[in-house]
Amino acid sequence: MIDPVEILKKHTGSLLVPTTTTTGHTSLPTVIPNEPVFQQAGKTGERTLWIVFVLMLLSTIVFAAMAYRVPVQKRLFHIITAFITTFAAISYFAMASDDGNSFNRIVVKESHKHVPDTYQEIYRSVYWARYVDWSVTTPLLLLDLSFLAGLNGANMIVAIVADIIMILTGLFAAFGSEGGQKWGYYAIACIAYLVVIYQLAVAGRRNALARDQKTATFFTSIAGFTLIIWTIYPIVWGIADGSRNISVDAEIVAYAVLDVLAKPVFGFWLLFTHERLESTIVHLEGAWSHGFGKREGSLRVGDDDEGA
Question: What predicted TM-score, i.e. pTM, was given to this entire model?
Fold first, then answer.
């Protein structure tokens, strides 16, 4: 005898059909785990990293050549600026060659009304080489601006230490867990940045105004340019590593534009203007110019002893 139920099972065995049970319990729908999501650089990001590496390398060569055109006593700005793009070039080479980055694992809880909560794992590339770069190059940038303004040692140290705190807490935030830890580090970084702003915008401008009008105008322009660029960095971080609202490629392009403006463009502007303004020249004598053991070192800003 042919059982119609068995025939039905044979033809519909591969279909998902609701069935009833006699156990008296209401069965919950099966929840299929989400596949992990990987957010990493694509072709656009990779090409951008190589392009910026080349730009940083070429800038370093030009800055070094410019340094050899002036006496060793007047090379301070040239040396510092060449170091900035040198470290940046190394960082971009590391990132472009698929080094200097690692995945940060983020778990996002997804709540549902009639089914159990699910969890989405996100693995996003964090380029830690970028933070190593910033931890070295941004203090050097501050040195350039501090010498230009004629800041004293105490203000310089405060600005540089605050800057390093800002970069390190930014790195901790990039690898921090969702919620309070990530944004707590971010808040600390922003507070440290406010200290940097104070040292440049208030103390730095005050010192620059005490010198001459041309130096004060130049410092106000280039320091203002730098602070505008630096203010955009935490905004990019907030929508990239922070909230993941843009892709890794978009993040790379955004940081690349900012880095080119903050380093090579800043450097060319500083050095070309510096060569035309005698008052901005920092004269270094003694060991810097003649070697150790010959004369005591001295540092003189400008073309005379005014304000010493």
Answer: 0.79
Rounded CA-CA distance 273/254 in Å is 27
Compute the distance between CA of residue 2 and CA of residue 203 in angstroms, rounded to an integer: 96
pLDDT digits (tens, 9 = 90+) for 159-217: 999 999 999 999 999 998 877 888 999 999 999 999 999 999 999 989 888 888 888 89
Give per-residue burial for 253-290: e unless 16+ CB within 10 Å, then b: bbbbeebbebbbebbeebbebbbebebbbbbbeeebbe
- Match 């007047």 to its residue by tokens: 74
- Reference 263, options 44, 60, 74, 66; nearest CA is 60
CA distance 190 to 186: 6
Nearest in space to 130 (alpha carbons), one of 39, 262, 265:
262
Inter-axis angle of helices 76-96 and 43-67, to 10 degrees?
A: 160
Residue 184, token pair as written in the block: 């707590």
> In the Cβ-directed half-sphere of 57, how many Cα atoms lie within 13 Å?
10
Please give the single-letter amino acid code of residue 53. F
